[in-house]
Q: What sequence folds into this?
């Protein structure tokens, strides 16, 4: 059997992921059967599962890539770019995340696999970006970066639910409120000194 080049491997993996993403978006995670995946990707099950042993592996790879891309946008361009990127996603694809949320809550093994794919270096870079923004007076400094990340994460989750349900979120209003909440403010000590 001839050996496949690294470029051909990468192309095949992208073909599988692109088709699987369309299939998940169209049919949901559970509805993306092997037959539907074969049809959407244009490859046999053997060719698909040669690269990804299970359907779950394909989905986790796609979700991990999305997470990395959004984090990288925040690192490179700030939280507003990350929020805007989520709103520009295909609502059908975002809806797949809602279906998987139940599994994350109820399936410990799946949750562990999901968590194992997080990139510590990406988290470190994101925290470094937030600390730099705090030092530059872009973000409030009375919160830890992890708290800011959790807050923005909750906003992103709300936007995903809104989009997946078929609603058009009021993006500019949301961004305005998020910016207001994260803008630097006088600390309690500074305020008390001013009032004395």
A:
């Amino acid at each position: 059997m001839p050996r496949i080049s690294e470029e051909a491997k990468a192309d095949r993996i992208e073909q599988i992921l692109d088709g699987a993403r369309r299939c998940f978006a169209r049919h949901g995670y559970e509805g993306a059967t092997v037959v539907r995946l074969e049809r959407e990707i244009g490859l046999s099950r053997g060719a698909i599962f040669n690269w990804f042993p299970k359907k779950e592996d394909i989905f986790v790879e796609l979700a991990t890539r999305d997470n990395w891309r959004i984090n990288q946008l925040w690192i490179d361009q700030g939280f507003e770019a990350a929020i805007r990127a989520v709103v520009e996603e295909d609502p059908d694809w975002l809806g797949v995340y809602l279906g998987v949320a139940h599994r994350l809550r109820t399936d410990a093994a799946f949750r562990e696999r999901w968590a194992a794919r997080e990139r510590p270096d990406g988290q470190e870079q994101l925290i470094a970006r937030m600390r730099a923004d705090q030092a530059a007076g872009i973000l409030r400094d009375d919160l830890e970066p992890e708290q800011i990340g959790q807050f923005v994460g909750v906003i992103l989750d709300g936007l995903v639910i809104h989009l997946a349900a078929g609603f058009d979120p009021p993006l500019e209003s949301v961004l305005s409120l998020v910016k207001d909440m994260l803008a630097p403010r006088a600390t309690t000590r500074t305020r008390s000194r001013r009032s004395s």
